[in-house]
């Protein structure tokens, strides 16, 4: 605003000095950019791919700690309605035959199922100590989802009918659910992340 | 390479003996469970158990079943084999191998003998890995002393290569072993080793326990490496040299100072008397005669330096000789007396020469002891006016003999002297009576007690005028005249009269 004072326009309205025509267009443009940035539609900016498996190891350790504390819980921890959870078993030969998309789909379906199971466990169990573990597990699953997104793996939300029941089973107690969680992370999720093509491109 | 077989085909004995024997032995030691299982690669699981009863139980009595937890179906059975010659003390060892394994799912195992359950166990196959030891362990020198680089190959397992933990064991001949553990890397630098020594290195591997777990593998074959010989760091060499140099300089310094203490310089007056010792061979008289062209022989002082003169004045009092009025009278009288007196030793010019010489070399005098008893002093006794009448020449002559000698070589008359620096004597308070002692004293010496009746004045043989307050006189009432005696500046002296 002071950059116009030196000019010989003393007889003009001083307010008019600010809205000088030379500066008006860049100002409007800047305002427009700010507004657009706020209202930017949908797509999040691409994350840097998280290829270091130590990130996943950190989540695995968290889940393992939760599972260890839950293992001793016997009475309080049974649930009435069995929960549908993904299968955690991995047959290496069978897994290798699947392509990347199938593997990703399997992983994301499993994460979705686990998420749903934890939420319903949260409602059915009244013990507040368990609630903290359940919340931690839910956050854990959400973080894994972020990692997957960073590796350019598209989000996949399964429909109820689209779930292959062959790949699911049912648990009826909280310790079992936590065990499924940790085994799922160690198995399928880790195998998927270790073979992510984005990370392999960086290495080679 | 993968062994494909069905449950019915027996495994080759030789293969089993080579690969599995050590594994069995290790697990027999380490695993507390009854059914001991291990997975060597990601393709199969081997389980075995011991049977201690010495019954002649046949192999076919045993049934080994397994089932995965998630499957709600009946368990499957697996063929049982016996491992010969392994178990000791009458124990028999039976094993079985699962053909297709699934990771990350809980596995239930059961051993039945004759229809009754003997042992059971639940485990995860990804938690019981027993890997092969690392291969190609190599030890090479690094560039630095006391270090060796160890590298090895990881186990060739596809999905596990970043989940490994290694332990390196190394020792010199006959020394205890040292261990180091590394994770996720297949090389290690050993530090702190002794130079020029041969080291033996072993490596073993285990899954790191986060995703996969298992038992420590067997130690690899030993690898040998020799550390490079130690060489001196050039920086250390330079520093040592600098320290030695400083040390030598220090010793030199100490020696020199010691020498100075033991053999101090004896000051020699040679340089003050040019030619005295070299040309005239110490003959002072000749040297004097040569340099001053005087003919009078010096009797008492041929070999002595002229001693410094001390001008002393004595006050003797009648009465209130109050100052100014009588002083000129007295001084006039004294002048006359002095003049008369000073005719006796007319060679004051020579004395002045000596005094000038002394003045030029004040350090010569400073080194000599000025107040020895054999110093000569000039004392000016202030007598009354009567003194001028009586020519106390005898006294004077006796006492001032040395002084006479000093003045002996002078040629000029006293009048000349009166205009010179010695003119102060003219104005001095004393009557001019010369005592036998005369010396010039320097201000930084203490006064010797001379005896009652004398007041001392120090006359400095420097270019600066010194004004001294007279010492207390035991005379009581006396007029003490303080003189300013200046050598070399030819300033007229002012006399002060002090009433004591």
From TrEMBL, chain A:
Pfam family, one: EPO_TPO
Gene3D superfamilies: 1.20.1250.10
InterPro entries membership: 4_helix_cytokine-like_core (IPR009079), EPO_TPO (IPR001323), Erythroptn (IPR003013)
GO cellular component annotations of the record: extracellular space; perinuclear region of cytoplasm
Keywords from the named record: Disulfide bond, Erythrocyte maturation, Hormone, Secreted, Signal
Top-rank lineage group of the source organism: Eukaryota
UniProt-listed GO biological process terms: erythrocyte maturation; nucleate erythrocyte development; pronephros development; response to activity
Job of this protein: Erythropoietin is the principal hormone involved in the regulation of erythrocyte differentiation and the maintenance of a physiological level of circulating erythrocyte mass.
GO MF, one example: erythropoietin receptor binding
Protein name: Erythropoietin
Keyword Secreted set for record: yes
Protein species of origin: Astyanax mexicanus
Localization per Swiss-Prot or TrEMBL: Secreted
Family: Belongs to the EPO/TPO family.
Disulfide bonds listed in the record: 51-199, 73-77
TrEMBL record, chain B:
Name of the protein this chain belongs to: Erythropoietin receptor
Predominant place of localization: membrane
Fibronectin type-III domain mapped to chain residues: 133-230
Family listed: Belongs to the type I cytokine receptor family. Type 1 subfamily.
Pfam families on file: EpoR_lig-bind (PF09067), fn3 (PF00041)
UniProt subcellular location: Cell membrane
Stored CDD domains: FN3 (cd00063)
Membrane-topology annotation of the record: Single-pass type I membrane protein
UniProt source species: Astyanax mexicanus
Keyword Cell inner membrane: no
PROSITE patterns assigned: FN3
GO molecular function terms attached to this record: cytokine receptor activity
Alphabetical keyword list: Cell membrane, Disulfide bond, Glycoprotein, Membrane, Receptor, Signal, Transmembrane, Transmembrane helix
Cellular component, GO, one term: external side of plasma membrane
Organismal lineage: Eukaryota, Metazoa, Chordata, Craniata, Vertebrata
Region annotation (Disordered) ranges: 314-333, 416-446
Signal sequence range: none
Spans through the membrane: 235-259
Biased composition (Low complexity): 418-439
Disulfide linkage: 37-47
């Amino acid at each position: 605003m002071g950059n116009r004072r030196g000019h010989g326009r003393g007889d003009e309205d001083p307010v008019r000095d600010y809205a000088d025509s030379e500066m008006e267009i860049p100002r409007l443009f800047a305002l427009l950019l700010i507004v657009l940035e706020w209202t930017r539609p949908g797509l999040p900016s691409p994350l840097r791919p998280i290829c270091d498996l130590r990130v996943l190891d950190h989540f695995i350790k968290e889940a393992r700690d939760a599972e260890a504390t839950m293992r001793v819980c016997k009475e309080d921890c049974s649930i009435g309605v069995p929960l549908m959870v993904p299968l955690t078993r991995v047959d290496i030969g069978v897994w290798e035959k699947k392509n990347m998309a199938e593997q990703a789909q399997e992983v994301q379906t499993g994460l979705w199922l686990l998420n749903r199971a934890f939420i319903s466990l949260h409602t059915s169990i009244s013990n507040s100590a368990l609630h903290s573990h359940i919340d931690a597990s839910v956050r854990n699953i959400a973080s894994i989802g972020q990692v997957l997104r960073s590796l350019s793996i598209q989000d996949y939300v399964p429909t109820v009918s689209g779930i292959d029941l062959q790949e699911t089973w049912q648990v009826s107690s909280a310790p079992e659910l936590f065990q499924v969680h940790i085994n799922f992370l160690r198995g399928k999720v880790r195998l998927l992340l270790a073979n992510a093509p984005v990370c392999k491109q960086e290495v080679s | 390479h993968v062994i494909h077989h069905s449950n019915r085909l027996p495994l080759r004995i030789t293969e089993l003996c080579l690969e599995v024997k050590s594994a069995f032995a290790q697990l027999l030691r380490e695993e507390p469970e009854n059914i001991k299982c291990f997975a060597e690669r990601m393709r199969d699981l081997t389980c075995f158990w011991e049977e201690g009863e010495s019954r002649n139980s046949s192999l076919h009595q045993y049934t080994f079943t397994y089932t995965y937890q998630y499957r709600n179906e009946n368990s499957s059975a697996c063929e049982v084999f016996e491992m010969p010659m392994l178990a000791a003390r009458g124990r028999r060892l039976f094993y079985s191998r699962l053909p297709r394994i699934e990771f990350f799912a809980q596995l239930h195992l059961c051993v039945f003998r004759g229809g009754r359950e003997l042992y059971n166990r639940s485990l995860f196959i990804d938690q019981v890995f027993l890997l092969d030891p690392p291969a190609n362990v190599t030890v090479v020198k690094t560039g630095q002393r006391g270090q060796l680089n160890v590298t090895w190959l990881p186990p060739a397992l596809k999905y596990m290569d970043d989940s490994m933990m290694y332990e390196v064991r190394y020792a010199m001949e006959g020394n205890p072993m040292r261990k180091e553990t590394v994770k996720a890397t297949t090389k290690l630098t050993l530090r702190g080793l002794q130079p020029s020594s041969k080291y033996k290195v072993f490596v073993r591997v285990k899954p790191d326990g986060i995703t996969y777990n298992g038992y420590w593998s067997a130690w690899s074959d030993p690898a040998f490496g020799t550390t490079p010989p130690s060489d001196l760091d050039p920086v250390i060499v330079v520093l040592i040299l600098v320290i030695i140099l400083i040390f030598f300089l220090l010793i030199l310094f100490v020696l020199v100072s010691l020498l100075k203490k033991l053999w101090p310089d004896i000051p020699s007056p040679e340089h003050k008397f040019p030619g005295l010792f070299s040309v005239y061979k110490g003959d002072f008289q000749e040297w004097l005669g040569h340099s001053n062209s005087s003919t009078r022989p010096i009797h008492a002082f041929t070999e002595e330096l002229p001693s410094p003169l001390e001008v002393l004045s004595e006050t003797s009092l009648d009465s209130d000789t109050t100052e100014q009025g009588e002083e000129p009278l007295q001084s006039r009288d004294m002048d006359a007396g002095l003049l008369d007196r000073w005719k006796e030793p007319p060679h004051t010019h020579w004395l002045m020469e000596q005094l000038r010489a002394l003045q030029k070399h004040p350090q010569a005098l400073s080194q000599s002891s000025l107040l020895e008893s054999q110093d000569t002093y000039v004392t000016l006794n202030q007598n009354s006016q009567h003194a001028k009448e009586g020519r106390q020449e005898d006294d004077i002559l006796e006492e001032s003999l040395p002084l006479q000698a000093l003045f002996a070589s002078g040629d000029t008359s006293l009048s000349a002297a009166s205009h010179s620096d010695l003119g102060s004597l003219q104005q001095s308070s004393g009557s001019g009576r010369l005592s036998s002692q005369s010396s010039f004293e320097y201000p930084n010496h203490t006064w010797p007690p001379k005896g009652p009746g004398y007041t001392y004045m120090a006359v400095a043989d420097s270019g600066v005028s010194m004004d001294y307050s007279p010492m207390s006189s035991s005379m009581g009432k006396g007029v003490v005249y303080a003189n300013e005696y200046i050598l070399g500046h030819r300033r007229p002296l002012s006399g002060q009269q002090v009433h004591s």
